[in-house]
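Lab notebook, bench 4. We co-purified these components, and the gel suggests they stay together. Before we commit to crystallization screens, I want a quick structural picture of the whole thing.
Request: model the full complex, all chains together.
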Amino acid sequence: MYYIGVDLGGMSIKAGVVDDRGNIIVEDRVKTQRERHYSLIIKDMADLCNKVVSDANLKISDIEAIGVGSPGIPNKETGVLLSSNNLGFYNVPLKAELQKYFDIPIYIDNDTNTAALAESVSGASKGYEHSVFITLGTGIGGGIIINNQIYSGFNYAGSELGHMCIIQDGISCSCGRKGCFERYASASALIEQTKEAARLNPNSKINIVAEGDFDNIDAKTAFIAQRMNDEVADKVVEKYIEYLADGIMNIVNILFPEIIVIGGGLGNEGENLLVPLREAAKKREYTSDIERTKIVSAVLGNKAGIVGAAMLGMKE
Amino acid sequence: MYYIGVDLGGMSIKAGVVDDRGNIIVEDRVKTQRERHYSLIIKDMADLCNKVVSDANLKISDIEAIGVGSPGIPNKETGVLLSSNNLGFYNVPLKAELQKYFDIPIYIDNDTNTAALAESVSGASKGYEHSVFITLGTGIGGGIIINNQIYSGFNYAGSELGHMCIIQDGISCSCGRKGCFERYASASALIEQTKEAARLNPNSKINIVAEGDFDNIDAKTAFIAQRMNDEVADKVVEKYIEYLADGIMNIVNILFPEIIVIGGGLGNEGENLLVPLREAAKKREYTSDIERTKIVSAVLGNKAGIVGAAMLGMKE
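Here is the predicted assembly.
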């Protein structure tokens, strides 16, 4: 049993042939060139699907289904991409257009949801019925898996974990609210917090790590300086962990998943991030009598896009 | 098809015979007398079940199942009530003990979950697949319905909507965290906010409504004084609505249920509460392109306990 997974991004379209254990057999990519009309982009998706099938020495008749992971809000039932600022797509009939090229089932879902599904089928949350996937990047994205299925709310717009208010009247967010989780606990927020600390503390080793240039500060900088025993960096990381723990424990108290998987660039910090995060989470538990939610790093990285999209077909 | 629903509370045990449309045919109650050994309390539950069946001119063989809604954290699989501070029950084999008296299936769930189920089967959220039930009382309780089923997380301890931090480092909560939703938006919180405003503003009509005695201030007081055009009360209600909207929109952005049902004493304020709440919620929407979550009042009131418990049997 083989499936095609397509990871549609603003920069590139990736596609792969995936087996029913979530292994990528063959993969390839082309540039999205998103300024073009959607019909041209979707034709490129179709060509890429055919290419990876051919590269895998298979025929399209060997493929059970095609799954597409897309940014924005796709309607899973109709296959229409309702809106994606990233692609500049609004009400694009993605499934119908792709279906012109193929006579097999096509499924579409949001790309963070497909990444969550990938981790759940063959990654860090494999074997757990209820899991939550959180990406710490420019913002905070979320994917909720309930009973081994993607849950995204009645109009496909749920699991916006980044837009949970943790500080009333806090920093303004692009969503229109104030004090959203992602304004404090995304990778971007950590970079801002690190820069601010470097600015206020010229002698901090943050400035050494950054070679004196604030533009060199990224989400790893504070962790690196912390390992150099820099007190300022230590405080930055500690405060950042508090923000992250507040949001994560809100999710735990609401959904109580068996496991939370941390992805995105910061997920790569692994135990440097997770050990203090688990401690901060433990302090926020409302009862110690019950088995706790595990907190782990994502393991599939960039592969999650193709694998999760392919799994959409397997799950149906 | 008939079911028995048992609403086990700290003060009273209520039981009723319920038909498969969620109508209560007969109901009755006895005092819990919770200081007794659990085996005596559960024997009273059994006697009450037999009484309501007899009062309905039915035999126990006409009953499909017995459902029990209990405070605390019951393990649905084993039927053990893991902990209930309210009843003083810890690791009580509730189902096994009750099963001694009956040869039909017995189910157990948390009482806020059963109330959520009741509203979903025959109340305010009837006809909606995904709903969230929120009680505004001493604390804030929650029940999550996904795909017409109660969702309570992997260890039955989820949907603790009241223990979501909305104000980092805010007021200390009994759960050990700070800034929890229920410390700002429960009925008790509103009473405290109303008392504080009355204290600071002796000329406020809140003091007239309360007849000069702070002990008379309840969750309705600020709403009554607001309708008397009292500016202080207006501000109390406005701020309270802001807290409530912050928590509710967090739930919306995470779960995006079709409908949120507000229960508990404050749910009775109806449109007085809901009209400004919907406005405050609308201001916090992250996109206006999609259909929104409805916010309504619960309709079953005290009946929800018996009906929802009975529905546990119907849902299995």
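Chain A touches chain B through 50 residues (CB under 8 Å). Worth comparing against the SEC data before the next meeting. Residues 231-255 of chain A form the longest helix (25 residues).
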